[in-house]
Structure formats: structure tokens, C-alpha cells
Amino acid sequence: MGILNVTPDSFSDGGAYVETARAVDHALTLVEQGAAMIDIGGESTRPGANPVDEREEMARVLPVIEALRAQSDVFISIDTIKPQVMRAACAAGADMINDVMALRAPGAIDAARDSEAAVCLMHMQGEPRTMQTAPVYGDVVADVRAFLAERVAACRSAGIDDSRLCVDPGFGFGKTLAHNLELMRRLRCFVDDGLPVLMGVSRKSMFAKLHGHDGMESRIHASITAAFWAATQGTGIIRSHDVAHTVEALMLAAALVDN
Ligand code: 7PM
């Protein structure tokens, strides 16, 4: 899954892809590099970021979804927590809703059900502005699995079939380095729960903490290494900014491991 940020305040791409044509170009490049899906995000549901107005978010993502849909059959994911954005994005051609709130916003479950799109349910402790302050768990893997099981059950009750779902432990979303590492070490537990698992660690600050220094190159190398590990553990979907190298790591994992 290649990441396409259409947020002007995005930390990784510096707002370089705010313009529709450039965003679509970048998406097509990611597809050429081997991305099977493109995750399009127009809001900052990010640690410490300001919330984005619904109209503004739609104005960012809808032209990109429409143009990409017109030019490619690639699986399109919309990274949003807002029901109206989910509905509009799916009408514009999105195939999947990637929600860091796991459809907890009022109306989100109904929007997802009506869309007939696939859904990624991600775990987050707290809310983006404050979630990194003091995350606390009993057993982080057990707690995150219980949360995801509850959200899967909520989807089922709403009429969203399991065949439409995947789950994500939500690396960096209300987690310390130790929490992130334990989730990564025990990714198999999530895989064994039966639904496809998505991992999103690309370029995240957890790697700067692990290394004891920061640098984009170091973060990228660690992200690709983590992708290899996750693939060997049966993780089906890797969310990445750096698709070409990540795909190569996944090719090696596929060659070495029977999953
Ligand atoms: C600043 C901090 C900017 C964090 C962007 C981010 C995930 C996601 C994001 C994830 C799923 C980023 C994150 N992370 N969706 N959206 N899983 N499913 O690295 O881990 O893009 S936002």
C-alpha cells in the first residue's frame, strides 16, 4: 500500500503533492513501483496536528481519487475518520476506507456499510492531539486485540461482512517505543486472529527513538527492514512511502517464507 499524502502539512512530503496532477503522478509512480493499493489521506489525524475541516478535506482528496480512478485500476484507499468524506470518496471511486478511529465516529459505521467498500480498522489509544503523552496498557497485544475484536463485532452487527475487513495495531498511535516493538514482535497474534493485517510504520518516529538519533535515511531503512519482518509473520498489507524498496523486501520474504 503506497502512501499518498494530500495534506499541505504532511511531515514526509512537505505538502509537495497538494496539487491534483502532481498527486496523481506520484500515485501512478507508486503503482509502477509495485504498489497494489494507494492510500490517499487529506486530513491530519496525526500526533499533534490540527483537525481539518470536512470541506477542505474533500477538496483535497476527491479530485485526486477521481483522476486516479480515471487513469488506473489500482485499489484506492481513503484515509479518513469522517463519514461524509467516506461516502464521497467511495462515490468517487475509492475501494477501501482506512479509518484510524476504526469507525467510532458517529455515522461512520453506516457510511462504511452503505459504501460496500473494504475497511481497515486501526487501533488508537486516546486522540491524536494527546495520545503520545502517557500511553498505558495492561498487555498491549491483548488490549489492542480486544479493541479490534470489539470493532469487528460492531461491523458485523452493522452488516459489514468479515470479508470486507482488515485490522491494524496502529503503530505510533498512543504507543511508546516499547509498545510498538512488542506489537511488532507479536504480529503473529494478530495474523492468527484470522483477518488480513495491515502494518503502518513507514518513516515513523519510533525508529528515531530506537536508533537514538534521527534521520530520514535511517527511518526509511528501518521501515523496509520492519516490512520484511512483518511479511515473514504473515502481515498481508504494508503501508509505505518507499514502495520500490519495500516491494523488493516483500519479494524476498515471499521467496523465503510460506505464509
Ligand atoms: C504524522 C504522523 C504524519 C503520523 C503521518 C502519520 C497509519 C495510518 C497513518 C497506520 C493505518 C503516517 C501517519 N498511519 N493508517 N495513517 N495505519 N491504517 O505515517 O499506521 O502516514 S498517518
What does this structure look like?
The chain has 259 residues and is of the alpha/beta class. The chain has one domain: Dihydropteroate synthase-like (TIM Barrel, Alpha-Beta Barrel). Helix content is 46%, strand content 13%. The protein has ten helices and eight strands. It has a six-stranded parallel sheet with strand order 1-2-3-4-5-6, covered by helices on one side. It has a two-stranded parallel sheet with strand order 7-8. The longest helix has 19 residues. The protein is globular. The chain starts with a strand and ends with a helix. About 2% of the residues have low confidence. It binds ligand 7PM. Ligand 7PM binds next to strand 5 and strand 7.
Q: At the fourth CATH level, what is the homologous superfamily?
A: Dihydropteroate synthase-like
What's the tally of helices? Answer: 10
Counted beta strands: 8
Which CATH-level-2 architecture? Alpha-Beta Barrel
CATH fold-level topology = TIM Barrel
Sequence of strands across the biggest β-sheet = 1-2-3-4-5-6
Gross geometry: globular
- In what range is the share of β-strand residues? 5-15%
Q: What is the residue-averaged pLDDT?
A: 93
Determine the N-to-C terminus distance.
19 Å
**Largest sheet features:** 6 strands, parallel
Radius of gyration of CA atoms, rounded to a whole number: 17 Å
CATH class: Alpha Beta
Q: What is the number of independent domains?
A: 1
Structural class: alpha/beta
Q: Which residue ranges are poorly predicted, with pLDDT under 50 across at least 5 consecutive positions?
A: 14-18
Question: How much helicity do the residues have?
Answer: 40-55%
Instruction: Provide the list of bound ligands, each named once.
Output: ligand 7PM
SSE sequence, one letter per element:
EHEHEHEHEHEHHEHHEH
